[in-house]
Every structure is written in C-alpha cells, then in structure tokens.
Amino acid sequence: MAPDVVQLVPARGRVFGEIAFAHPDLAGVAMTGSTATAQVINRALAARGGAIVPLIAETGGLNAMLVDSTALPEQVVDDVVSSAFMSAGQRCSALRLLFLQEDIADTMLDMLAGAMDELIIGNPADLATDVGR
Predict the structure, then answer these.
(1) Is position 74 annotated as part of the catalytic site?
(2) Active site residue 58
(3) Most exposed residue of 20, 29, 38, 124, measured as fewest CB within 10 angstroms of its CB?
(4) What is the rounded CA–CA span in Å between residue 102 and residue 8?
C-alpha cells in the first residue's frame, strides 16, 4: 500500500471489516450506511491497540425541502430531481421529504412526474443511465 493514498475497496462489509479494521496500516475510515453499521465499525476500531483511528460516518437522515408559492417551479423540479436521484442517495443532503404548499402542490407534482419520466433507469455502468437499478 502506498503511503498517503486514499483507497476504495469494494467488498462485502463483514468480510472486509474483519480484515481492514484490524489492519495496522489503517489510518481512518469514512463510510455511508446505517447507524448499526457505524456502531459495528466504531466498536471494531475501538478494540484496536495503538493510536485512535478516526471514523467519519454518514448515517443518513430525513432531509426535507419546503416549497411555497414564491419558489420558481422549474428550479424546484431541477433541485428535487438532482438531490433525490443524482447521487443514488449516497450523500447526507439527498432529499428524502418534499413538502409543498397546498395551492401549488398539484402543479409541482405534475412537473416532477414529467421530469422523472425523462430519467433513464438502467445499468449504472452505462453512461446513458441517470438512475441505476
């Protein structure tokens, strides 16, 4: 392993964790996942001897957007689609709840449905895909 390099290692969590979290060269962990997984990782890191290894754990949340009648509908649609779908939910600011003022709700929902109909759902390895399945 090269020093001062960030490495991404795709693997099954439990198998990877049993090896990686005990490895003496591990300098830190950043993860996105459940709170339960973060707790398992935290306990594994705490059980190591030696220096404390930093853990950055993004365990999600219920991020909301509130939209009233002063908002530009096209901007709202763009922001909702980008936030909710363009990162597969793998960031802390991914939209999970959308609250719409009642008198604009029907129009906004129609616009959002139209925008989502335009998304290409498919193999994430295909560059034409907007949302992986």
Answers:
(1) no
(2) yes
(3) 124
(4) 45
Please give the structure tokens belonging to residue 111. 């616009």
Q: Could you say which architecture CATH assigns to the domain 64-132?
A: 3-Layer(aba) Sandwich (3.40)
Catalytic residue among 18, 74, 92, 118: 92
| Other CB atoms within 10 A of residue 67 CB | 19
Structure tokens at 91: 């960031």
Chain centre distance of CA 85: 10
| Sequence spans of domains, the chain | 13-58, 64-132
Phi, psi of 58 (to 5 degrees): -100, 105
Structural tokens at position 2: 């090269």
Separation between Cα atoms, residue 105 and residue 26, nearest integer Å: 49
Q: Each residue of 31-72: pLDDT tens digit?
A: 877 888 899 999 999 998 888 899 998 787 778 899 999 999
State pTM to two decimals.
0.56
**For residue 96, what pLDDT is reported?**
84
Evaluate if residue 25 carries a pLDDT over 70. Answer: yes
Q: Provide the token pair at 53.
A: 């290894």
* Assigned token pair, 29: 């962990």
The pLDDT value given to residue 124: 85
